[in-house]
Design brief:
Blueprint (H helix, E strand, L loop, with lengths): L5 E5 L3 H9 L4 E5 L17 H10 L3 E6 L5 H4 L2 H11 L3 E4 L2 H10 L4 E4 L8 H9 L4 E3 L6 H9 L6 E9 L10 H6 L17 E3 L7 E3 L14 E3 L4 H7 L3 E4 L6 H20 L9 H6 L8 E2 L23 E11 L2 E6 L3 E2 L3 E5 L6 E4 L3 E3 L7 E2 L5 E5 L9 E5 L1
Parallel strand pairs: 1-2, 1-11, 2-3, 3-4, 4-5, 5-6, 6-7, 7-11, 10-12
Antiparallel strand pairs: 7-10, 8-9, 13-14, 13-21, 14-20, 15-19, 16-17, 16-21, 18-20
Helix pairs in contact: 1-10, 4-5, 7-9
Length: about 400
């Protein structure tokens, strides 16, 4: 019997958590108010964390809390209380990168599993086994590994040590995220969750005696994105990941939108479920599933270093910026008497053609013929964010479904 891999999805806030759960995440990873690699105010506060865990568990999903920064002396003193509170909330695991943090997890929250973050840079079986001996249940392998190297790690580590790998999303230009570029250029410490992502900026050369003159590094007139990585997409290689022994498929993107979380989660849920129904090495997901990965904001896709080493393929995107061909326009809250009850996200009008996305099903298109406000009064457009609207649609859609249109 083929092992069912876990689909692990980002949950940057409550809305993104709801999207991940509705569209089929087996587990989510999220941050608290400190010690996580995304220092956003939208992370879960101490008071919000219990409800987030309860919602996930009610949906049959696990919750992994990020504690993968590299804390300094003054920060480490606050960690025990943070860990104890998280354990009381019922989180299923901590994601850590530092052996001191690992030791404190075992001391102050001994019943909570520990996952070793990709920040730890695990690239061989000896390191994986060492973390296992220290009490880790899982290692999140470095993104620089090939599938062949992952398979060897799987073969030479205990069976109950889980292996997690990123399968989709942004990749860092530095080794396993250990980067000082943000610190140097902006004073924002990437290793404590405040990365400004200067690797995504366009660069040009300047010469000391020619103040204000900038020279392109290549033939591109606007400069060159010499550090800008392509995005990872492994949705067409599910059998290879399973064969290598990957237990958990991780989608990057706690800083991405709820729409991004929903669409990518849905695509990988459909791809994994399709594979489990037909676990063949030749399995490929349906074309509509692959197409979903291009209906979010993304950079040029690649397969990371699973098939080619960093020395062979740097996976740098010289184009810069994002591709965005679709916009979410509404979230469905229900269907009643031939009308979709929705909450607006971006402006749309009568006459627009929308595409509806329901969990696990191919999207379908329909034209907005009749549009009403929340009171049932006819309107020509829905211009206000979060306004309640009613859209005539013969096909019922469950709450949580999405409506979008081409940008």
């Amino acid at each position: 019997m083929t092992t069912r891999p876990e689909l692990l999805c980002p949950a940057g806030d409550a809305e993104r958590l709801a999207a991940a759960l509705y569209f089929g995440a087996d587990a989510v990873y999220l941050g608290g108010e400190a010690f996580g690699m995304r220092s956003s105010p939208q992370n879960f506060s101490a008071s919000a964390l219990p409800d987030a865990v309860q919602r996930a568990h009610a949906a049959g999903a696990k919750v992994y809390l990020t504690c993968n920064t590299l804390p300094r002396n003054d920060e480490i003193e606050r960690l025990p209380a943070f860990l104890q509170h998280a354990a009381e909330c019922g989180v299923d695991a901590f994601i850590v990168a530092d052996i001191g943090v690992l030791a404190l997890c075992k001391k102050y929250a001994e019943n909570v599993a520990v996952h070793i973050s990709t920040q730890a840079g695990v690239v061989h079986y000896a390191a994986a086994r060492a973390f296992y001996d220290l009490g880790a249940k899982r290692v999140v392998l470095a993104r620089e590994l090939s599938l062949a190297e992952i398979a060897e790690i799987r073969a030479k580590t205990p069976d109950d040590l889980e292996l997690e790998c990123f399968v989709h999303g942004a990749m860092c230009v530095s080794f396993s995220g250990r980067c000082l570029l943000s610190n140097y250029l902006t004073g924002r410490d990437a290793n404590r969750g405040a990365c400004a992502q200067p690797c995504r900026w366009a660069f040009a050369l300047s010469e000391k005696s020619r103040e204000g003159q900038y020279f392109p590094i290549s033939e591109e007139p606007d400069g060159t994105y010499i550090l800008n990585s392509k995005d990872l997409c492994m949705i067409e290689h599910i059998p290879a990941l399973v064969a290598a022994g990957v237990d958990s498929f991780k989608i990057e993107g706690r800083a991405k939108s709820a729409y991004y979380t929903a669409v990518v989660t849905n695509a990988y849920r459909a791809a994994i479920d399709g594979y489990l129904q037909d676990p063949s090495p030749d399995y490929r997901p349906a074309p509509w599933v692959v197409a979903e990965t291009e209906k979010v904001s993304y950079r040029e896709y690649c397969t990371g270093f699973y098939f080619d080493s960093p020395q062979t393929t740097a996976n740098i995107s010289l184009a810069g910026g994002y591709r965005r061909l679709w916009d979410v326009v509404a979230i469905v809250h229900g269907w009643e008497n031939g009308y979709l009850l929705c909450e607006q996200r971006n402006k749309f009008c009568v006459g627009d053609t929308l595409e509806a996305l329901e969990r696990g099903k191919p999207p379908f298109m329909f034209r907005v013929e009749t549009l009403q406000n929340g009171e049932g009064e006819p309107i020509d457009a829905a211009p206000h964010p979060t306004m309640c609207v009613r859209i005539r649609c013969d096909t019922p859609l469950p709450a949580g479904s999405l409506l979008r249109k081409q940008a």
